[in-house]
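[Q] Does anyone have a clean C-alpha cell version of this?
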Amino acid sequence: MKDKSGKEISENLREEAKNIRLVMADVDGTLLTKDQVVDPETVKAITRLRENGILFGLCTGRELKSVLDSLSVWGIEGLVDAVVGSGGAEIEDLTLNRSVKQYPLSGRLIKKVMKHYADLPVNFVVPEDGLLYTFKDDPLIQALSKADQIPYQVVDPNTFLENEHSKVMLTFRPDLMPAVKERSKSFCDPDFTGAPLVTASILFEYMDPRVSKPAGLHQLLEWHGWSEENLCSFGDEDNDFPMTQMAKIGVVMKNGSQKTKSAADYITDDNNHSGIATFINEFLV
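[A] Here you go.
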C-alpha cells in the first residue's frame, strides 16, 4: 500500500474520494462471489453509489455481450453504467449509448498461437457474441463454460479463423501454468509485440498489445471529460495491476495477487465477504 499507516490511508482516501465520478470493478474474484453472484451488501452499496451520482461499471477480460447477458443472473441488472470488456478491446457506455471495438487479432496469428502450444494439453477458446467458441470438446472447455456460466460451441478453426477476433485464450489444468508461461517466452511474431496475460489460474490470453484495461478506461473517461483523478477501481489478479496503478484510488481484494496488492491504495475484504461494499460504504457514500 502506498501510505505508511492506517490513519494516513483513511485521511488521504477520504480527500481523494471527493473527486471520484466513476467506479470500475473487475468481475471474477472481485465482484462475483464463489457462487458467481454479487452479494446483497454489494448490490446495496452499488445502488447507494449511483444514487450519489457516481457511475458504476465493470472492467473485465470477459467478452462484452456475455457480461451484458449475465447482469440479471449476477443480480445487478440496471446497476451497470459502463462495461470495458475483452480486457479493453470492447467499450460500451450505457449512459451515453456509445460503444467501440478495437484492435482484433488476425486469424493467421491465432492459428500460429495454437501451433505453438500444439503439444501441450491445452484447449483454445475465443469468447465472442455471448459464447465461448472452441475447436474441440473436452473437459477443459466444459469446466470453463460451467464456471463462467457461458455456453460453448465447437467450430471448424479453418472457417472460423478466416475472420479477426478480439483475443484467443488458452485453458488448462492449474498445474500446467508454469509450462504455459515458459512456452510463451519463445513465441515470436511481427504482428504481436506485447506479452500474453495470466487472467486466472486456468487462463492465459493473447490480445493485441495495444489492448489493455487502462486503455479501455482512458477511452471511457475521455467520453465523459474526466481523468484518472475521477476513477476508483477494484481488482484482484495480476492483469488488474496496471488498472490499479492508473486509478486515483486503486482498491485490491484481500484475495488478490501480491503483485496487484503492491500497487493498491487500499486492500479491502475478499470477494466472498463484501469487499467492494466495505470500501464503498466507508469512503464513497
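[Q] Thanks! Anything notable?
[A] Residues 138 and 267 are 38 Å apart (CA to CA).
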